[in-house]
Design a protein that fits this description.
Blueprint (H helix, E strand, L loop, with lengths): L5 E4 L7 H14 L3 E4 L3 E3 L9 E7 L5 H14 L3 E6 L3 E3 L6 H9 L20 E6 L3 H4 L3 E4 L2 E4 L2 E4 L9 H6 L3 E5 L3 H4 L4 E2 L2 E6 L5 H16 L5 E4 L8 H12 L4 E4 L17 E2 L2 H10 L3 H15 L9 H16 L1 H17 L8 H12 L12 H4 L2 H8 L10 H9 L7 H29 L20 H14 L4 E3 L9 H8 L5 H10 L8 H14 L4 H15 L10 H13 L6 H28 L3 E5 L25 H15 L1 H4 L5 E4 L9 E6 L3 E6 L2 H6 L7 E3 L4 E4 L6 E3 L3 E3 H4 L5 E5 L11
Helix pairs in contact: 1-2, 9-18, 10-20, 11-17, 12-13, 12-17, 13-16, 15-16, 17-22, 19-21, 19-24, 21-22, 21-24, 22-23, 24-25
């Protein structure tokens, strides 16, 4: 069953299935059709997110177990709701004491039946798996190790022992294992198992193996077949060996009736592969288009110029997005992903050694070629026949130009040929092609999302997953074209504005976006708060924009977000090489400025901008709920929801008092529920164009000839230009009823003054059919 709308709940030990069941009546009253649950399979004890799966065969006991999940499904069904579940096929927790499959591999080595579960390069590790789990060098940690009951213990960590080694002296015992305990810093260069991005605590799973797929999916397939689960969100498909093949197998296993969307991040105008058997993406591509409508292009350019002067960003060639992103990619591929590059280099070298025509390519040249091509992949990963459009000949020539010896540059052709599958189809060739694609997605995520987004910050609302900080504004024509394509090609795709992974909630971004309409006011604010010195201009710029986005932030929420930002940026401190003095200076600045006495100045600006923030907040919400696709509401976002990056946005769900946004949300959701065909796969999308001096500030469309959505964009610029004037919007023929407010109706077929349309609020939702009183929002 395809949902008409979903509501994401972060299920965790502090908010288990039973708590979700208590919230069902309220959530059903909103008008959603399905609850969307974060991962529900067994995970590391205490995990607040569930992406560190430990056992695919069991529903997590801390959440209420399988009985609790089935009870939640029954409660939901009694209120007309189904369940969608977040599925994590790419990785598991790498903690042996919790992951029994990994435990057996570490105990029995490559002969273990579970060895096929993981991408372990046994040869690279000298026949051992490197476990980078120690706080220091192994010699310094020996005193903390002990053997008890046939188990090796180090603090709270536990490791299996190879049979017959229990009685050896400790140094000999360590040498006799199928694994090597090592300092955590060794992961960067010596790790020999595939992981999730750069997180060594999450080990990759080989679901491309039929036996592994069956073992890791039997429980979730059972839940789907039993009707407990009706939809699946597939986490990080780019990490899989062959995403399309995996999705086809999942479709077969679930019977083809399950609604499936993938967390595929599309870059720019990149399209989801047409052959994937899914309903679409989880919706970050929609997020970028909705957000972009409320960004002023000219104002953003002015902000960027002021940013370069004020922040003087370190080392990014003048503070330009493309240069910043490229520099971040070099750093990540050279440092954080060094072990992944080493694997690709070894594999390429093995191919060359076996081919007389390719011998004598120096390993250092192959390594350089791998790095240079990886950083030039403009999307998250190349796919099949489309790979040549990504790994272009132009990219190869640019990569060759970085070599000082022309003859060595030929290594680029070898690496590109391997990545495109042109140099044979043997085991090493296939391994290279697969791992190159997997590493590409890890590089993109770590260099763009987790580094460059924190280094280039003229308008931080644009620095969101799938976003383009170099071109954040989206025109109405671009938005309409995107929606028409969704309605035609992916009508049941997911759409989102806020998720557990967004760096700022939609409403925080809506507030910050207004700054693109008033760059001079923003510049004045920075002048007014200059008396509160910051460690550097970059952190001041970011912190003050965050404060404006939050309105009246609490220091205990703002400070961790700013500290995370400077660590991710890696310019003055980082997670692995922290500068304690700099970080303390950042915290002192936040306490004295954005979260302290100087906040009053920012609050004054926030108050002045409130009418325009309101237009952005309501406009983005209504577009999201009525555009093509299946809208996913993140928990608590039916009302104004101000949250920063995790863990701030992953707090347990709390039901709160309704506000104006709630009224608009309920009206839209109840229309979707009452008229599913209007918004479903058979529905149509038709842009409506306003006429008059302020026409560009009105974005409107009609769904299936039955509903009309109209919103105000760039409302501050609109007010400065004198308002709507005689701008009008001609509605389709017929009589149109306001779905939010009783007593308002409009006649179609003739111009309606936009000022009348937006008399009650800066958005309007109209229905051709009268909305029953009991269905109206309150």
């Amino acid at each position: 069953m395809t949902p008409n709308s979903t509501y994401r709940l972060q299920i965790q030990p502090d908010f288990p299935f039973s708590a979700a069941g208590e919230a069902v009546p309220y959530l059903a009253s909103l008008g959603v059709s399905h609850l969307h649950l974060s991962p529900v399979l067994e995970a590391v004890p205490g995990s607040t997110h569930g992406y560190d799966v430990t056992d695919h065969s069991r529903v997590r006991e801390e959440l209420g177990g399988e009985a609790g999940l089935r009870a939640l499904a029954r409660t939901a069904r009694a209120h007309g709701l189904g369940l969608v579940v977040d599925l994590v096929p790419n990785h598991m927790a790498a903690a042996p004491r919790h992951n029994r499959a990994l435990w057996e591999v570490l105990r029995d080595g490559p002969s273990s039946p579970y060895a096929r579960w993981f991408d372990i390069d046994w040869a690279a590790g000298g026949g051992k798996v490197l476990l980078p789990v120690l706080g220091g060098r192994v010699g310094d940690e020996l005193a903390g190790m002990r053997v008890e009951g046939g188990t090796l213990r180090h603090g709270e960590q536990e490791f299996p022992l190879r049979p017959g080694t229990e009685d050896l002296a400790l140094p000999e015992l360590l040498d006799a294992q199928w694994y090597r305990l090592g300092w955590w810093r060794l992961a960067r260069t010596e790790l020999n198992y595939r992981r999730f991005f750069t997180i060594s605590d999450l080990i990759g799973v080989r679901v491309e193996d039929p036996g592994v797929f069956e073992a890791t999916h039997a429980k979730i397939v059972e839940l789907v077949r039993d009707g407990v689960v009706e939809g699946l969100r597939i986490d990080h498909p780019d990490g899989l060996a062959d995403p399309e093949a995996y999705l086809r197998e999942l479709e077969r296993a679930t019977g083809g009736d399950c609604w499936i969307v993938v967390e595929k991040i599309l870059t720019g105008e990149e399209r989801l592969p047409a052959g994937w058997p899914v309903a679409g993406t989880t919706g970050y591509d929609a997020l970028r288009r909705v957000d972009g409508l409320f960004v002023d292009e000219a104002g953003t350019a002015e902000l960027a110029e002021h940013y370069r002067r004020f922040a003087n960003p370190a080392g990014d060639r003048g503070g330009h997005w493309e240069a910043t992103a490229r520099r971040a990619a070099y750093k990540v591929v050279t440092h954080a992903l060094a072990s992944e590059v080493a694997y690709l280099t070894r594999t390429a070298a093995a191919v060359c050694a076996a081919d007389p025509d390719l011998r004598d390519h120096a390993p250092w040249a192959l390594r350089a070629a791998v790095r240079e091509l990886l950083i030039r992949v403009p999307v998250y990963r190349p796919y099949g026949t489309g790979a040549e459009d990504v790994l272009t000949a132009e990219a190869a020539e640019e990569a060759k130009a970085t070599f000082t010896v022309a003859e060595e540059a030929a290594a680029v052709d070898v690496v590109r040929g391997l990545a495109l599958g042109r140099l044979g189809d043997g085991p090493d060739q296939r391994a290279f092609r697969t791992r190159f694609a997997q590493t590409s997605s890890a590089l993109r995520a770590k260099s763009v999302e987790d580094t460059a987004f924190y280094r280039y910050t003229p308008l931080i609302s644009a620095n969101e997953v799938g976003g383009d900080p170099g071109r954040p504004a989206v025109s109405p024509a671009e938005f309409h074209a995107f929606c028409e394509r969704l309605a035609r090609d992916w009508p049941a795709t997911g759409t989102v504005l806020s998720t557990h992974d967004t760096k700022r909630s939609a409403d925080v971004r809506a507030r910050i976006a207004v700054l693109s309409e008033c760059p001079q006011r923003w510049a004045k604010l920075l002048d007014d708060v200059a008396g509160t010195p910051a460690p550097d201009g970059q952190v001041a710029w970011t912190a003050w924009q965050t404060a404006v986005g939050m309105g009246h932030p609490h220091g205990d929420r703002l400070a961790p977000a700013v500290l995370k930002a400077v660590r991710e940026a890696g310019l003055h401190t980082s997670w692995t090489e922290p500068d304690a003095a700099y970080e303390q200076a950042v915290l002192d600045f936040v306490e004295a400025g954005p979260a302290g006495p100087a906040l009053y100045t920012a609050s004054l600006l926030a108050g002045e901008l409130e009418p325009y923030v309101r237009a952005n907040t309501l406009g983005a919400a209504l577009l999201h709920l009525t555009m093509p696709g299946v809208p996913d509401l993140y928990q608590e976002t039916e009302r104004v929801y101000l949250a920063l990056v995790d863990p701030d946005n992953r707090r347990p769900f709390q039901e709160g008092p309704p506000d104006e946004k709630t009224a608009v949300t309920r009206a839209a959701l109840r229309l979707r529920r009452r008229y599913p065909d209007v918004f479903g796969a058979s529905g149509t999308y038709r842009p409506l164009t306003a006429s008059g001096p302020a026409a560009g500030h009105c974005v409107a469309f009609c769904r299936s000839g039955e509903t009309v959505t109209a919103v105000t964009r760039l409302s501050l610029r609109l007010a400065e230009s004198g308002g709507w004037g005689d701008t009008s919007l001609t509605l389709p023929e017929g009589r149109w009823f306001d779905a939010v407010d009783t007593g308002r109706a409009f006649r179609g077929g003739e111009p309606v003054p936009v000022a009348d349309l937006f008399a009650a609020r800066p958005v309007a939702l109209l229905s051709r059919r009268p909305v029953p009183e009991e269905n109206r929002a309150r």
